[in-house]
Design brief:
Elements (H helix, E strand, L loop, with lengths): L7 H11 L10 E6 L4 H16 L3 E6 L6 H12 L6 E4 L1 H9 L7 H7 L1 H4 L2 H7 E2 L2 E2 L1 E3 L1 E4 L2 E5 H6 L8 H13 L3 E3 L5 H26 L3 H4 L2 H14 L11 H9 L3 E5 L4 H7 L8 E5 L7 E4 L2 E4 L8 H10 L2 H11 L2 E2 L11 H16 L2 E3 L9 H15 L5 H15 L1
Parallel strand pairs: 1-2, 1-3, 9-10, 12-15
Antiparallel strand pairs: 3-13, 4-5, 6-13, 7-12, 7-14, 8-10, 8-11
Helix pairs in contact: 1-15, 2-14, 2-16, 10-12, 10-18, 12-19, 18-19
Length: 419
C-alpha cells in the first residue's frame, strides 16, 4: 500500500479549529456521505452536524438510503471513479481496509497521536481503523447485532417472559402466532436476513464454532451438523414473519414492534434509536435482550468515518471532524441517541439508559472473555466477497429456494469460491 502523504501544518491548523480559532468565519466545510436516514439515525447525526457547525465548519449532507450501506458504497465508487470523492464517508469493516489498500484514504496519525486514540480505542476496532500502522478512519461507535427487541405490552398480554433458550423463544413464537399477533417483524433484504443469521448461527454453533466457521472459514465448521441446526432455526423464524416482509426497510419492521403489530425483532442496537425517537422507554414500553443462547457473546460492527484523500493532505476540516468524532462528550451524546455504545473505553455510562448500560457492560465482558466477534452480516468477519457469498445462501434459504441440508452444502461451496 502506498505511503500516505501528510503535513504537520494541516494537522496543527485542524487542532486549532477544534478550539474554534480556524475557519471560524465559516469558509471551508465537509461533504459527508452516509446511510443514516431513519428518524433515530438522523437525530443522532444531528449531534455531529451541530458540533461542527458550532466551529464554523459547514456540513454538506449526502444521505444514501439503505441500512446495510450497499447503495452508499455504489454511489461512492462512482464518485471516486469520477475523481470527486466526498470529504468523509461512513464505512464498515473490511470496506475501510479495501479503500485504504487502494490508496484512497488520508492519514490521520497525527490527529490520533494528539488525541491518544491508541490508548482508548479497543483493538477489535483498531483492526478496521488502521492499515499498515496508519489511522485511516475515525470510529464513531460500536454496534452489537445479536439483540432482540420486544413490545413489553404484547409479551405481558400473552404471558411471555424474556426467553432464555432457543426452545423458550420458539415456544413464545407459537404463543404469539396462536394469539393472532405477528411473532417476528422482519424486512426481507439480504443484509437483514444475514443480521438475523448472525445471532441464530452463534446460538447454534457456540462461540468456538462461530469463530471456526465465519472468521477462520473452516470447511468442516461451515458444513457441520450445527450449521444445519442454524438453518433449521432460520426456517422457524421464516415461518413466523408476516407475508409482506419482502423488501421492507428495517425501521419499518421496528415500527411494527413499537405499534404492537409484532412481538419481536432481531436487529442491531441501532433499532433502539427508533424506540427512543417514538418516545418509548426501555423496560416500560420495550425490552432489549441478547438472542437466546448468545447471552455471553457479542457480535459487533463499528461505524467509522473514512477521510478521503483530497489531494495529498489531510484538510483542516477533516482533522476537525475526526477530533470531534472521538471527543468523549460527543461519544456519549451521540451514542445515547443512536442506541450504540462509545468507541472509546473511557466514556462514562452515566447518561445511558438501561439498554445502553447493558450494551456497554456486555461489550466489556465479551472483550475480556474473548467472546467479541466481528459480525458476518456487517462486514467485520470477512472481506466483501465472502460476506456476499454468505448473503446469497442465507437469503436463498430464507426465501425457500434451499432446504437446510442443501443450504449447508451451498454455503461450503460458496465460501470456497469466494476466497
Amino acid at each position: 500500500m502506498r505511503s500516505f502523504l501528510k503535513t504537520k501544518t494541516a494537522i496543527a491548523l485542524a487542532l486549532s479549529v477544534t478550539a474554534g480559532s480556524a475557519v471560524a468565519d465559516g469558509h471551508g466545510g465537509v461533504e459527508v456521505l452516509h446511510w443514516w436516514t431513519s428518524g433515530g439515525e438522523a437525530a443522532a447525526l444531528n449531534v455531529l452536524k451541530d458540533d461542527l457547525e458550532a466551529q464554523g465548519i459547514a456540513w454538506t449532507d449526502m444521505p444514501v438510503a439503505g441500512g446495510g450501506g450497499e447503495q452508499a458504497m455504489t454511489v461512492l465508487r462512482a464518485r471516486v471513479t469520477a475523481g470527486n470523492a466526498p470529504t468523509a464517508v461512513q464505512g464498515l469493516g473490511f470496506d475501510i481496509i479495501d479503500w485504504a489498500n487502494q490508496g484512497a484514504l488520508a492519514n490521520l496519525n497525527d490527529v490520533a497521536a494528539a488525541e491518544g486514540w491508541d490508548d482508548v480505542i479497543p483493538a477489535a476496532l483498531q483492526q478496521f481503523a488502521k492499515v499498515d500502522g496508519e489511522w485511516v478512519s475515525a470510529p464513531v461507535n460500536v454496534h452489537s447485532t445479536n439483540w432482540v427487541w420486544a413490545n413489553k405490552s404484547v409479551l405481558d398480554a400473552n404471558g411471555i417472559a424474556v426467553p432464555e433458550t432457543w426452545e423458550d423463544f420458539a415456544a413464545a413464537l407459537e404463543t404469539l402466532s396462536a394469539a393472532g399477533v405477528t411473532p417476528i417483524a422482519h424486512g426481507g433484504q439480504p443484509w437483514q436476513d444475514a443480521t438475523v443469521f448472525d445471532a441464530v448461527a452463534m446460538s447454534a454453533l457456540g462461540p468456538d464454532g462461530y469463530r471456526s466457521a465465519f472468521i477462520d472459514l473452516d470447511p468442516e465448521a461451515l458444513g457441520s451438523d450445527a450449521m444445519k441446526e442454524a438453518f433449521d432455526r432460520m426456517a422457524v423464524i421464516r415461518a413466523n414473519v408476516d407475508d409482506n416482509f419482502s423488501g421492507r426497510d428495517w425501521n419499518l419492521a421496528t415500527a411494527m414492534v413499537i405499534n404492537g403489530e409484532a412481538g419481536f425483532q432481531m436487529m442491531g442496537d441501532w433499532a433502539k434509536g427508533e424506540f427512543l425517537n417514538a418516545g418509548e422507554v426501555p423496560g416500560e414500553d420495550f425490552l432489549c435482550f441478547r438472542f437466546p443462547g448468545t447471552q455471553d457473546q457479542v457480535t459487533f460492527n463499528a461505524d467509522q468515518f473514512m477521510m478521503f484523500d483530497q489531494g495529498g493532505n489531510v484538510s483542516a476540516e477533516q482533522a476537525a471532524l475526526a477530533t470531534a468524532i472521538l471527543s468523549p462528550s460527543f461519544q456519549s451524546a451521540f451514542n445515547v441517541v443512536k442506541g450504540s455504545v462509545p468507541a472509546r473505553t473511557d466514556v462514562s455510562d452515566a447518561d445511558f439508559d438501561a439498554c445502553g448500560k447493558q450494551g456497554m457492560a456486555d461489550l466489556a465482558a465479551a472483550a475480556e472473555s474473548g467472546n467479541l466477534f466481528g459480525s458476518v452480516a456487517h462486514g467485520h468477519a470477512n472481506e466483501a466477497s465472502v460476506k456476499n457469498a454468505i448473503y446469497d445462501v442465507v437469503t436463498a434459504h430464507f426465501n425457500g429456494e434451499f432446504d437446510s441440508e442443501t443450504a449447508v452444502d451451498e454455503l461450503v461451496t460458496a465460501v470456497e469460491i469466494a476466497q
